[in-house]
Design brief:
alpha/beta; single chain
Length: 343
């Protein structure tokens, strides 16, 4: 049993180490600029969250560095992911906000993936993804029953790339659950898809519920946009009786595919992370700052005004979800890849 005097000495040493780390971190960040690199275009949900968080995160980093947001879209998030993974600035001054599709792209073996998502160091996420299928009033579609079955009307949905939640949910609904969907993919972010919807080039899209509230609240309220189905680990309270995609799954195989292609990936779909070579103590500082931001009354008040959903997930948990997903058994991987690729 440790003596009281020895225990006190240990506490003193730990406190001294923490104090030295804090001073060193403050010295490092003071006068520097920290960039949050967003893997999609301006105006979308990822961009919106990054900018709200950047307005407050700097106050919780030692030395209060200047903070900016930089958009680096391309290849469905891979351009930004590859950059952060191989960047020479692995010192804690670059933070990536990227979608979970990057992990799915790695699972597919896509040659453009030049990183191992398991090696990124995850900082945290503001919430677990919850996606909805939203269509425009001009599409003439008012219920899910109109797009499922032998007399279904075809609905044109916008997508981004292989593995994106927008594309995967659309393919799952089409190929596994029987909806009549024409997926038009390749858009550089949901902001571009919304423009196509508003000009009647598309009928709708799968989009994050929180992002949709932040970017299209007025259209949801006016009825210009209508939600047909929700895809979420937990029911979205605000949507009441809107059916869940899980309710359409009848067989055990369908239910398993719904879980593996939506529920698990949605946990890490809104990740903030840094490169694999950023020093551990700096990762700890950023994780602590992110955690403090998520509970900061000023940030929460700001997020409420922007209609942003905040239900934070720890970086260590995100790391576990990613490793679980990429480590799935071969038979399950084959089925998931069938959905992702639309085969």
């Amino acid at each position: 049993m440790m003596k009281r005097s020895t225990f006190g000495t240990v506490l003193f040493v730990l406190a001294l180490v923490m104090a030295v780390w804090s001073v060193a971190a403050a010295d490092f960040y003071k006068g520097k600029t920290v960039r949050i690199v967003v893997s999609s275009s301006p105006g979308g949900g990822y961009d919106t969250y990054a900018r709200y968080i950047a307005r407050h995160l700097y106050r919780h980093l030692p030395g209060e560095p200047r903070m900016i947001v930089e958009n680096r879209p391309g290849a469905g998030g891979l351009r930004a992911g590859n950059y952060i993974y191989h960047s020479s600035r692995q010192d804690g001054t670059e933070i990536l906000h990227i979608g979970g599709s990057s992990v799915i792209k790695q699972l597919t073996g896509m040659k453009q993936v030049r990183f191992d998502a398991r090696q990124f160091q995850y900082i945290g996420a503001p919430y677990a993804e919850a996606t909805v299928l939203v269509v425009t009033k001009n599409s003439g579609i008012t219920s899910l029953e109109q797009v499922i079955g032998p007399k279904a009307k075809e609905v044109a949905l916008g997508g981004i790339s292989v593995g994106s939640p927008n594309d995967v949910a659309a393919i799952l609904l089409r190929d596994v659950l029987g909806a009549k969907i024409r997926l038009v993919t390749g858009y550089k972010g949901t902001s571009r898809i919304r423009l196509a919807m508003d000009s009647d080039e598309l009928d709708g899209m799968f989009n994050g519920w929180a992002s949709l509230n932040a970017t299209s609240y007025d259209k949801l309220q006016s009825g210009e946009y209508k939600v047909l189905i929700q895809v979420s680990p937990e029911p979205i309270k605000e949507l009441g009786g809107i059916p869940s995609i899980a309710q359409l799954a009848k067989t055990d195989e369908q239910k398993r595919l719904v879980r593996l292609t939506t529920t698990v990936p949605y946990q890490y779909a809104r990740s903030f992370l840094v490169g694999p070579k950023v020093p551990r103590e700096r990762v700890t500082e950023i994780r602590n700052a992110f955690g403090k931001t998520m509970t900061d009354p000023k940030f929460l008040a700001d997020a409420k005004k922007g209609r942003l959903k905040i239900s934070p997930i720890k970086g260590t948990d995100l790391q576990s979800y990613v490793r679980e997903f990429l480590g799935m058994p071969a038979d399950e991987k084959a089925k998931v890849l069938g959905v992702v690729a639309g085969k």
